[in-house]
């Protein structure tokens, strides 16, 4: 099937949601801080053509840039709930959240919504912030997407373990700059440091966690110590040779995990 775009009403406006109404539990994708619905292009290319999928630009980013704040995690989880209700009509689904999107996905999963069959967390921000997430770290992170040059530095020196293909890298740079100033600052200054361990303990569905072997943003050891204790049913798989941007660096590996 071909993706179609549907408009879902959310607080303060609407989201343009790309839907492939195929088979199986629908995969509902939530991108990272700096990403977009297009972050998942490579992953979808490795999935069976008939697999049901849902993806969109989160509030404040890309096509959703003009949606008003607040842009905090609870509002992102509220938007996600509206998308699920508006696009899936009660059918079963699996949330697939990357980094910031992984933390928002944890919040929705903790609400135990009807139809949720599983949770796949891709290099997720853990429910308990790591000690490295200091005020100094967050202030520096808040400037990572200030310019094309700062984005290029983040991609080359922090977010990936190997160079991205030129077209993928160009899209990542564009996406990282396609946010309003308030939305761009919300995650590094507040969201990344928010402790959601109380909510994470309420997650009941099976949880798969994918970590990049060389991820310096959310290293495997951080996920072992700051996620697994709070989501005891979660299993962790380390993907070799990659960094934080698994959907861009290892889309086939992510798709393989989703085939389960």
From TrEMBL:
Keyword Glycosyltransferase applies: no
A single cellular component GO annotation: membrane
Key words of the record: Hydrolase
Keyword Zinc: no
GO MF assignments: hydrolase activity
Pfam families found in the cross-reference section: Abhydrolase_6
Annotated AB hydrolase-1 domain residues: 27-257
PANTHER family found in the cross-reference section: AB HYDROLASE SUPERFAMILY PROTEIN YCLE, MONOACYLGLYCEROL LIPASE
Name the UniProt record assigns to this protein: Hydrolase
Organism: Streptomyces griseoviridis
């Amino acid at each position: 099937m071909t993706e179609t775009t549907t408009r879902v009403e959310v607080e303060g406006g609407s989201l343009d949601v790309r839907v492939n109404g195929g088979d199986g539990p629908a995969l509902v994708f939530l991108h990272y801080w700096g990403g977009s619905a297009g972050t998942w292009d490579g992953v979808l290319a490795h999935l069976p053509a008939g697999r049901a999928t849902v993806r969109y630009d989160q509030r404040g980013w890309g096509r959703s840039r003009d949606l008003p704040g607040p842009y905090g995690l609870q509002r992102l989880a509220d938007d996600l709930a509206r998308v699920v209700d508006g696009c899936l009509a009660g059918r079963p689904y699996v949330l697939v959240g990357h980094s910031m999107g992984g933390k928002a996905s944890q919040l929705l999963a903790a609400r135990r919504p009807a139809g949720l069959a599983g949770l796949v967390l891709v290099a997720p921000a853990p429910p308990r912030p790591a000690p490295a997430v200091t005020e100094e770290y967050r202030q520096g992170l808040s400037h990572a997407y200030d310019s094309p040059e700062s984005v290029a530095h983040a991609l080359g020196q922090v977010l990936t373990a190997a160079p991205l293909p030129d077209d993928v890298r160009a899209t990542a740079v564009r996406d990282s700059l396609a946010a309003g100033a308030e939305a761009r600052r919300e995650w590094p200054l507040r969201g990344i440091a928010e402790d959601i361990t109380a909510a994470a303990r309420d997650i009941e569905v099976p949880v798969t966690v994918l970590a990049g072997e060389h991820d310096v943003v959310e290293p495997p050891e951080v996920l072992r110590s700051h996620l697994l204790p709070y989501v005891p049913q979660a299993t962790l798989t380390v993907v070799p040779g990659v960094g934080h941007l698994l959907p861009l660096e290892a889309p086939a590996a992510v798709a393989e995990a989703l085939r389960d």
